[in-house]
Structures
1.
Amino acid sequence: MPLSGLEIYKLLPKTNCKECGFPTCLAFAMKLAAKQADLSACPYVSEEAKQALEAASAPPIRLVTLGGADHKVEVGNETVLFRHEKTFFHQPGVFVRVPDNLPAAELEAKVGEIVAFKTERVGMDLFVDGIAVQNVSGNADTFAQAVATVRAKTKRPMILLSENPAAIAAGLAKEGGLAPLVGPATAQNWQEMAKAAKAANASILVRADGDLSALAELAENVKAAGVESIVLDPGARTLYGNLALFTQLRRLALKKNFRPLGYPLAAFPGEGAGSFEEEVVAAAQAVAKYGGIVVLDHFDPAAMYILLTLRLNIYTDPQKPIQVSPGVYEFNAPKPESPLLVTTNFSLTYFSVAGEVEASGLPAWLLITDAEGMSVLTAWAAGKFDAERIAKAVKAFNVPDRINHKKIVIPGLVATISGELEEELPGWDVRVGPREAVDIPSYLKNVWK
């Protein structure tokens, strides 16, 4: 059972030194009990107290890291059931599974297509996190060769999937030592699986077919064998079954602090799906509801874009909008006579406007004001995007030194501030632009003069 704040306080040095970042040891103890602080922040805690406080200070869901320095996936270490309570920190890793029985050239081409996929969303690159290799052939040498082929093509994290410990050991010998995930470890093979994973410093996937008691026992056995970096697969392969078990596991870890099940979860949405569309739906559910590792059986760029965008939206801080830095941005090599547009620093707004300006092929300046990451209408309603702020940005970023005119284009949605902005910027011609970003190219070509 987790310790209460007062029980933790009794184990602390009680110096109230404030070096932990909190005003008193009692305040620090309360944060430890709420899983909102790290015990390492206290420089004076004794070794005995550290051991006693381990259950209170350790995260309820263990952090598991796959991959090396170039490409790394971190999952787990979450502290809440719902993102609005705090935020989700470690987004699920999305992998694509390939069989080991493909001809080498075909396997190389398939992996190349997967790792070549990259798209941009609000200034962030979205891509597939890694490759899972399935031992379909049943042959250890074939599996090892497939792992070697994949590793030669990419340094991204890998998952080695086989119930044969000998095949896993052969695959690990070719993987390159980049902290893969291996498994599944089951009631029949966990000893040899744990031995192979421990020797290679790999994480291990533990699977039980819907029995959480058996899953907990198996995870404890693997941990006792020396492998603490564990990912759980509860074994359900239906939408309802996955949702029910994943929710139970998350609640047991967070609400009951049940350590044997306090690990990230793996989902295999292609197993049990009757179609590719069903697989995508199951993957989306896993992303939204507690999946730590999501392994797809099919790769499709359009579906991947949808899943990665969903993941991005869920794993952003709901209390802190994604935003870009205020300033003056240049598009298509603007000149002093080029138009000057203005908008807020909400990322989606910026990239929508920037994309249309760039696509127009016409040179332009874009002034981004600090609206605390809000969209145009939201910022205007909150008083964060008004005439005073825009005028301040014009002066702060030395806009008059960049252009040889005094014309500024404001978003059509805030046309009402045009008069106020003219008062803030005497002598300037304040123009009302389009309401929607998609109309900006037409405005620049046909309206701006």
2.
Amino acid sequence: MKLNTLPIIICCCFSIFSFSQTEISDPHMKWTNGWTSFEPNLQDYPEPEEILPNLIETDSYLRNDVVYLMSGNVYVANDATLTIQEGTIIRCDKENPTSLIITKGSKLIANGTKTSPIIFTSNSAPRSRKPGDWGGIIIAGSGKINSPSTSKVLEGNFLPQYSSYGGDLNNESTAEMSFVRIEFAGKKIDKSKELNGLSLYALGKKSIINNIMISYSADDSFECFGGSVDMHNLISYKAKDDDFDFTLGYKAELNNIMAIRHPYISDVSGSYAIETDGYDKKEGYVNPSSLSHVNIRNASLINLSDQKNYQHTVAAISSKNLARLEITESKISGFANIIQFDKSYQSYHDIEKCFLLENSIFNVHNTPVLLSFEFKIQTDRLLKYNMYTNNFKSVKDLFTDPLNKKHPKFSIKDPKSYTVTH
């Protein structure tokens, strides 16, 4: 079997490159200890004891000594705040379409702890849970989007009076979420309507989203529609569609994000670890400065591919409609390509202005950068100050313990053995 190899670029000065010293801030993923679960289908959760009402219009508190059932859509409305105690388990009905919708003006406070995470999961029995058993968590904020219309409608079949989002409150606070697991959610209703594990609509800078794990989503794990909320410590595990999706002028910083994909799990339309859209092509955008611009540090974008199945993979990143993306101190491995650009990027200048990958390592089996315009350009300089494998490596050959079912580890086995671009 012949694999595509990358051209070797010789660098005479290795001292400028710091990956072997940093090797990502937490190579053994200590930040995931205690609150995550990489085998959620084996978890034996208690049976529900209390059904949540489908409309919550006053401040409410969910206790961890009660296991709750969500059956049908649950709307938090009328400026109410839903507070969930650490360690609370919410089971979600498979038979009756179920999502939690935090409507515009209302608030969610769901602060778990490292030893007592908050869990949203399927109500099915162990070993019978499947992606898409329920809808997901939808949070509608009043932050900015870059559509000419400052207010839009949530994706999905939700009640119209509870479906608006967007505004001009860049510093609004709609949600506080930490140490939360979301399992077996997501659903593709049709081409224009999708339910993700966690959908964040126009959340402002003062919202808090960190330490979130989304497992086996039937659509995207995380999707941000505009807004400016910074996030850190996010895990997407074996999503069917994209792991992280950013659109409508989302502008923020992410630190410590992880996407673990499998080459046999993908949507028919193509699925990526990261998909960025500068704007909604159907509606246009306000001005060039309003385009989506995401800064990511310490990303691990991993496809668990090997020599037997690597051909089923696509690019790790899809960048569309002049979105801007900067990634540093990260790992991209197991994919066909690093990034695929659409036709909105018409020149090397467009790409250089809109994409940065630096102080990172990549292991791909085909051309690192895919372009949609016809004339050829040299992309080597776009990838300077990074390391790469001279030949594609299987996930087990590159990382220390990537297939561990309880706590996978993605530290590089020998970071000094790879070629450096310069």
3.
Amino acid sequence: MKPKVLVTREVFDDVLEYLSKHFEVISNQSDQPMDAETLASKLSDKQGAMITLSERIDATLLSRCPNLKAVCNIAVGYNNIDIEACNKAGVMATNTPGVLDDTTGDFTWTLILATTRRLTEAEAYLRAGQWDGWKLKQFLGLDVHHATLGIFGLGRIGQVVAHRATGFEMKVIYHDVRRAVSEIEEACRASFVSKEELLSQADIVTIHVPYSSATHHLIGKAELKQMKSTAILINASRGGVVDDVALIETLRSGTIAGAGLDVFENEPKFNPEFLGLKNVVLAPHIASSSKATRHKMAMLAAENLVAALTTGKPPNLLNPL
């Protein structure tokens, strides 16, 4: 008898076909989000689950799922999974690192260029029928070329972003909890600086750190005040790394020039006050959303699940038990 697994959100058909070779699969191709009660009910008799950031795996849920052996996230970040609770319950947890680095790095540059050149603001102006001709000082933006790029977190995605900066002949500085090895610094043409130096020197500040209690509100009111008035802030990492209330106040007052955001606190219920600001570019958590990359993420999560329930050794295990 095949083990039972749950796929909590819509995935590609061939991913389901692959899983069905190994498991009895209960899928959610209607893509209806599940609340905590529904998720616990559907997982109560399952041995495995392929989940997304929308589903919270915690001690309360695990206590109702005695047969559960593995939860496999379709994401690199895993702040939706209580790893300690998984350890206590003997549940393996996995993620999907590596396959989305380039795509997320590309989208970071989408946010950088759209924000510095005020693209969404200009497009809204055009669509509203307000354009009445060329003007010398219309939608004056900020130059990216030869500017200083400040990167918080020189991990895989941060390095991709740094490499892309070469084409714009930028000065790249970074800050991280640990300094990168010299080979990485040289490849990225990046210089290590303090947090304070990065904030005060960078024309563009971009964040690429995981969310945790240590990075909660890494960028808050005090940090935003340290930035140049002409600077922009980019966040394509995780909501909660930036204090959204403080950022809204900062953007409204003009303390910094603008922001480009793909993630928010309490998403998808983000702060509606962002919508009233012209100097912010907003996206609904789509930095990894190319067809090829999202397919790779889903298939890697499926491979993790198969390995977890057949060998006990998934390739991207977060919590060796």
4.
Amino acid sequence: MSTLRQLRNFWIPWAATMVLACFSDAVAQVSYKITDLGTNYSNDNFSMAMGLNNQGWAENMDGFVNPPENNLNTTVARGRAVININGRNIDLGTLGKPDGNSWINWGGINDRGEAVGMSETAVPDPDGEDICGFGTQLTCVPFLWRDGRMSALPTVGGNNGQASAINNRGEVAGYAETSVVDSGCPPFKITAAVMWEKGKAVALPTVGGDLDGVAFGINDHGQAVGYSGSCVAATHAVVWKNNTAFVLQDLGVARSNIANAINNLDQSVGQVRRADGSARVAALWQPDGTLTVLDQHSCKCILSGDLASFATGINNRGQVVGSTIDSDNNWSHGFIWRNGVMTDLNTLISGDSNLSVISASNINERGQISGMATVVNGPDAGNIHAYLATPVDESIGTSMADVVRTHPKSTLPADVRNQPMQRSGHCRLER
């Protein structure tokens, strides 16, 4: 069956989507039914749902992970951007060799099924960079996948870039290299936050004397969020409105402040560095830029040992999802924050699900959540699988939070669980 026909066959009419969205508001949601989205190929051991649209279609990064030697050398042996529709995977392909790699970021799919990300080409990077992160040192370019075809989006003079998110108007946010050498990281080039509209790249301004910028999210009004900083660190969380950068409030430490997503009510989420500089914590910004810290340490539902948190998804009802990191810097829990309360998603999932949630990437208007989870039992035990969690009005009895206390989170090496953070561009923040 052709890719386009697969998309058409699974298309959910807008009327049905709106009915479901209203229904989910009207029903008391006490738990989630979790669906294992598996992996793209039978011998893959890793997948993570990064993008999610209102149809419940997930854009995943799927691949095979090799054990790393140390943190800096963590690599994914192969990887592909994939759209999962009702359990069926559509491999988006690559702009390089047939067996080449492609990857994605938060927010990479819209309601029409258009998707964005980054792909290797067949051309070695002239500066020896490895932006796609597969250890190949091939140039890595932003892509738009539309009507069953992947095409490259232009940079702003440099060799590499990434398309992070796409809205329902087809506008894309991300970053791209310029032709100017970055004085902080020669011979690498300055990175500009970019918006693509009708295929044309427009570089967005940074703040103050910052040289580099990255955009991670975009809403349907064309407002983008990300950060302004340097090649070694994010400094300011930023929202761009009408091509003007506005700094979002932080806790007084100019490091690791990042906005990852923005809804249509101009609410943004991301992370800020604690005032004492000790760790990053999940953040919610209102349209005027004021900050609410979503601190997991104030929530007894989060298991002890978590060190940091960050938020990556928000819907138009102000429901926020994100992830926590434990004291060993591993992915630990996926959470939902609503009505002022942060809740470990594993406490809302039945203990017989066989998936232990370790991240939550996105939440749509139906309240569905996507992310990645550790397989608890069976032949894939210890592997990481993408999931889709759908709200239901059911009691669950024993929760997955009770079950996982007696199981290891993953048999993959610790640093591998940090790979999606690095692949998403965050490796450029803390070099």
